[in-house]
Each structure stands twice: as structure tokens, then as C-alpha cells.
Design goal:
With 70 residues, the chain is mainly α. Helix content is 73%, strand content 0%. The protein is built from 2 helices and no strands. α1 runs antiparallel to α2.
Amino acid sequence: MSAKKETVSVEDVRPMYDLAFRGSRTAISVLDAMSQRGAIKGEEMSAIGQLRDQMVQIAQLAEQFHSDHE
């Protein structure tokens, strides 16, 4: 049994990358503001840091997508 492979165009996925980029940049800004204002407890810092790192990775992937498909 073989799986059917679908072809997806760049234009089909561009809105998802745009949204991922905007959402991740907003999340990074919110997390940074929360951190600066002391809204994060010490025991939450690790999880918040991991979340921020993931948002940075998403933003970088979306930026790379745009660079590759301009």
C-alpha cells in the first residue's frame, strides 16, 4: 500500500508562514514584556524560556521561507 503524495504550492502555504511569523513575533514581545515586569515566577522561568525559544525558531523558519520564495 503506497501513500499518495500531494503537491502543495508555495502560495498555498504562504498564509500559514505569514501567520506563524506574526504570531511568534507577538508572543516573543509579550513574553519579554512579562519578564521585564516581573510577571513570571521563578519556577515558571524554564517553561517560559522554552516557549520563547520555540517562538524564535518559528520566526526564523518563517523568515527563511520568505527568503527562499521571494
